[in-house]
Amino acid sequence: MNGELCSRLLFDTMNRLYLKSLKDYLSLQKETNQTSTPPTNHEYVKKDGVHIEQFPPLGESIRQIYLQASNSLNNLWVVSNKIRNTREIQGVSSETGGTFAQYHMFEVVKNYPKALGAKAGWGVATHTGEIATAVCVPFTQTRHLAHAAQQLISRKSFNPSVMHSDTWPNKSEFWESTMPGLEGRLGLFHYEKRILKTLRKKHIDCHDAVGDLLFAVYAYDEQDYEKLLVAMKKGTLPSNGKSFTDQEIDDLKGTKQFRDRYGKYLRKRLRLPETMRQAIDNWFCRYKVTVSPGSRPGRGRLDPLHKVPLFKHETKVAVKNCKEKAEFLSDPLPIEKMYDRIAPSPNSKYDII
Predict the structure, then answer these.
(1) Would you state the pLDDT for residue 292?
(2) Are 312 and 199 in contact (CB under 8 A)?
(3) Backbone dihedral region of 33: left (phi > 0), alpha (psi from -120 to 50 degrees) or beta?
(4) Per-residue buried b or exposed e for 233-243, using 16+ beta carbons within 10 Å of the residue's own CB
């Protein structure tokens, strides 16, 4: 809980209420007599004057109240919220052959007092989306998460076979020695982000480049894609019953809207390492402008408005890094085991694919 934020919001609400009340008072006076001004003997109560004796609590006070409430046993089940949440996290399991993801979080520590000394949060999530553990760490070094990791794998019900990480193969020696036989993989989102964050978002070709890069890394399952096209043309998807034409589907395909709206219906098949490397290299040549001696020619262009290329200086390094790490991105399990099918609601009006 961010006590400072809650305190600022309360003070801001009080300030805005005062301004609204003052505006209403002056507007009424103006409406009654447009040529006069508010009489000095009926001066409006000043903000922070003698009549205002109570103020919202400060952030530290709100935080202390919250902690006291979360540790309170004064409820029907005589279990505090802190203990209940702790037991729920400790009860998260992962069956043999399952997958989990470990990662560092930096935004979350903004909700903690600076005196705690936390620079990041370290957490583990299972393939079901449940959080198996979450701790604050002073740095991102392995020794600061080792104890929490040992406590996690000591659970009898936690025995996964595959781990996804945003920095793999970094720390691979620790995980392979801690969990013998564990397979590590680099997370797809962070893999793509390493290149995408180096592109100029205002470039005229940025939209097409993003779609082509994703296509170079993975392809949609053919059977899923076929069913999606049939459903879109028949209008049996929950999109107001709209039937799409071939032209509308072609315009929508490859856009962020298509990925956000229909990506949940499609399984992704990651390309094999060498195929992925070749596809990424072709993508880089397709959009690069400047060419180094002895390298493949570039077919990109400068933005007509800003006169700048799509790639920044960091793009070439990011592409080289991703080509080297392509072998750590492939699916470790058959695609049938990488996804869980979620059936539609019995009350659904649509014939979901």
Answers:
(1) 83
(2) yes
(3) beta
(4) eeebbeeeeee
Exposure pattern of 132-171 as b/e (b: 16+ CB <10 Å)? Answer: bbebbbeeeeeebbeebbeebbeeeebebbbbbbbebeeb
Residues 6+ apart with CB under 8 A from 197: 318
pLDDT at 346: 75
| pLDDT for res 291 | 85
Nearest CA to 238 out of 345, 155, 118, 147 is that of: 345
| Residue 154, helix vs strand vs coil | coil
Q: Which residues of the chain are modeled with pLDDT < 50? A: none
125 strand-pairing partners = 101, 131
Using DSSP bridges, classify how beta strands 183-186 and 162-165 pair: parallel, antiparallel or unpaired. Answer: parallel
Q: Which domains are assigned to the chain?
A: 3-82 (no CATH), 96-186 (3.30.420.10), 190-221+267-338 (no CATH)
Measured over the CA atoms of residue 144, residue 322, residue 210 and residue 129, the dihedral's sign is negative
CA dihedral 196, 199, 200, 201 (to 10 degrees): -20
Q: Look-up: residue for tokens 């794998």?
A: 153
Helix ranges, the chain (H): 3-32, 59-70, 81-90, 142-153, 172-178, 188-196, 206-217, 222-234, 246-252, 256-262, 273-287, 313-324, 335-338
**According to DSSP H, which parts of 292-332 are helical?**
313-324
Cα distances (Å, whole numbers) of residue 285 to 305, 313, 338: 22, 15, 32
Residue 49 confidence (pLDDT): 57
Quick one: pLDDT at residue 30?
64
Which residue in 244, 226, 222, 227 sits closest to 353, CA to CA? 227
- Residues 105, 118: contact at Cβ < 8 Å? no
The pLDDT of residue 147: 94
Q: Could you give the percent of the chain with pLDDT greater than 90?
A: 38
Mean pLDDT of the chain: 85
Q: Which helix (H) or strand (E) holds 120?
A: strand 120-126
Structure-block tokens of residue 141: 């070094």
Write down the pTM of the prediction: 0.71
